[in-house]
Amino acid sequence: MNHNSLFNVLIVEDEPELAALHRDFIEQNFQLRVVGIAGTIEQARTLLNLHQPHLVLLDNYLPDGQGVELIASPWLKSLDCSVIFITAASDMQTCSQAMRNGAFDYIIKPVSFHRLRSSLERFMHLVKTLRHVKVVDQSALDRLYNLPTINTPSSPSTKGIEPTTLGKVQRIFTDGADISWSVEQVVEKVGISKTTCRRYLEYCVEMGFISIEMQYGNIGHPRRLYRKKAAV
Amino acid sequence: MRRRLSFQVKLFLSLVGFSCLLLTLLGSILYHVIDRQIHHDLGQRARVQASQIALMPGLAEKVAARDIFGIAAMIQPLRNQSDASYIVIGDVHENHLYHSASPERLHLPMIGGDNAEVLQGKTIISMRQGGIGVSLRSKAPVLDGNNKVIGIVSVGYLTSYIANINTRQLGQAALYGLLLLCLLFIFSWMFSRNVKKQMFWLEPKEIAMLVRQQKALLDALYEGVFAINAEQQIVLINHTARELLDIRHPENKLLGRPLAEVIRLPSAFFSENDFTSTRSHHDRIMVLNQRQVIVNCVPIALAPGDESGWVFSFRDKNEINTLSSQLSQVTRYADNLRIMRHEQLNWTATLAGLLQMKRYEEAMHYIQSQSADAQSVLDFVSAHITSPALCGLLLGKYVSAREKGIELKLDPACQLTHIPPAISETALMSVIGNLLDNAVDATLQTHQSSPVELYISDRNQELLIEVADQGCGVEDAMKPHIFEQGVTTKLSDNHELAGSDHGLGLYLVAGYVHQAGGSIEISDNQSQGTILSVFIPFSSDASGGEHYESQLAL
């Protein structure tokens, strides 16, 4: 049925033109229905009570207060309504507050419609999944709520890993299979920065290519050394 | 309004009043005892005299013969020797034969009516109204050869005479009493004066008021206050101090206990001889019960140069930091507004220009680039760090570093999905926060804007946090000591608290990492700067790093 797949959205934004723009964007592209536009916190409360929307696009700076305070209120949580929090680039501190209070997503002004689209898509996906999957186990739930993680194009481990550099690092260990290497030695051999080197070494450990061993040196200070794992 | 007597006068008056009462009571008891004793003594004396007179040879015959002149001649010498008021001889019919005091009563009957027993042969002592007044007297029978009563001898002391003796003795006693009273007056006055002096000339009510005031004052203080005596035992601790240091015991259970037992002090607290010297100290940063506080210390000296204790007051360091940062934020805010307005104008002008030239694509791109940076950091952090609190911290550090003109580079491989059970989220925040602050401060000292790099990874058996900066670096000689309290590489004069709060961040980091059984490595970054790597094991069975301060890989 049609109304089943329509979700109610409330826009809280004190700039009427921007609010109208958001409404048009939302209603044109998604199965979402904008049930109201609130210009103040007070109006937002009234409309939230009236329509019980599924999603709120919440601007932070409003004439009678800050949107972040609305997220913090337990009253909003009881409504079972997701929040996409919108704030200015100069106000990222507030974003961390919104994060702690469990906003669904955070968008920095000026709003990129591209970013807003992906956020709304994730929301639709979340709600639909929740509707269809009546019983969800914890890991499925975690995955749902960590959608940004899943949305990143490749597996997070390979981020910042270049095949050529990885090859150079791995060659050191295959060449000196029975030698334990310190970070400094690897840095010297490959010619990368220490911070980058650590990333590659951790990646290799994760892949099970090398292992860490602790060397309790002559002064008694343990050092981390890396060594090629014996082939199974 | 009625004028109230001062405590000293009251004490004096009550002392005097009470001693007067005591003296009077003692006097009256003494008087009664003496009075009774005198009566008894005189009665006995009268009896002896009466008996002896009755037995005088020749008296019986003279009485029998009613020889008035003979009797008088015989008794008169005795009378002259005796202290008795009178001596009376009577016949068996109770008529006077001789009366030493009033001879005109001769042949008249004896007065008193106490002769019946005497006539039966007994000797008596009685107190009666006689012919010449009330008297204490003894009567003895005069017997003839056949033991038959033929007369009465009466020897008596008038009460006026007894009273006379009493008065004399009382007079003497009163004299001594007066002397005692004088001494009492002097003693009481000096005693009350001395007491008053010890109470600083204050009235007890004023003292009670002061004590109550002091209690109220201490509890109203927003600062924590505690005082110790010369033996380093707690003599006072207020509510705020207990709250700030998380001491659960009530005040009365803490009093008298050694300070070190109640509060975990830095090891050098007393041994430095810093606090136990005559000078007072201001705004020293230290860690009490794992809490960073700013301590003031003032010695209590009863006499100049003779300390008998110390008073410590302290504030939470974080509060001070918040205050000062709020203060500096306000001043920065005005500047920011001015700059932002300027930027905004430029921005709109550019946009207007692009739109007028119908370069819509470029306009779009221009608009989106404004938020892209911040958005990407936000998305990156929330995608790779699952703890919302840590996300908030990293975001906050990112912004505050940017405000100082330093970029916080988050390594693309950053990942934190779970926190080691051995460390709390708050402690982990403190570790990361302090490491980042240190790196930013070290970079600021070089007056270059090289980035600070952060790498967090929970992929392997250990949580790895690596913070790299290209700042001022740490000299090799300093490295073993960098985790000790108070050690710093920062210049002390570029901070609002005059360098007093430096040297704590890494000390706290080391403490938390040590508790979690982890280790810290410090090494030089390439070209310049420092890399600090923190390893916290995920398995809880990892042995506590005992040498965490010195686990250095150089």
From TrEMBL, chain A:
Transmembrane segments: none
GO CC annotation: cytoplasm
Chief location category: cytoplasm
Taxonomy, superkingdom: Bacteria
Short name of any one Pfam family annotated for the protein: Response_reg
Response regulatory domain boundaries: 8-124
Gene3D superfamilies according to UniProt: 3.40.50.2300
Modified residues (4-aspartylphosphate): D59
Keywords from the UniProt entry: Activator, Cytoplasm, DNA-binding, Phosphoprotein, Transcription, Transcription regulation, Two-component regulatory system
SUPFAM superfamilies: CheY-like
Record keyword Ribosomal protein present: no
GO molecular function, one term: DNA-binding transcription factor activity
Record carries keyword Cytoplasm: yes
Localization (cell): Cytoplasm
Protein name: Transcriptional regulatory protein
Species: Erwinia sorbitola
From TrEMBL, chain B:
Pfam families named in the record: HATPase_c, sCache_3_2
Catalyses which reaction(s): ATP + protein L-histidine = ADP + protein N-phospho-L-histidine
Cellular compartments per GO CC: plasma membrane
GO molecular function: ATP binding; phosphorelay sensor kinase activity
Membrane topology: Multi-pass membrane protein
Stored InterPro entries: HATPase_C_sf, HATPase_dom, His_kinase_dom, PAS, PAS-like_dom_sf, sCache_3, Sensor-like_sf, Sig_transdc_His_kin-like_C
Regions that span the bilayer: 12-34, 173-191
EC number(s) on file: 2.7.13.3
Subcellular location: Cell membrane
Occurrences of domain Histidine kinase (ranges): 351-540
Protein name: histidine kinase
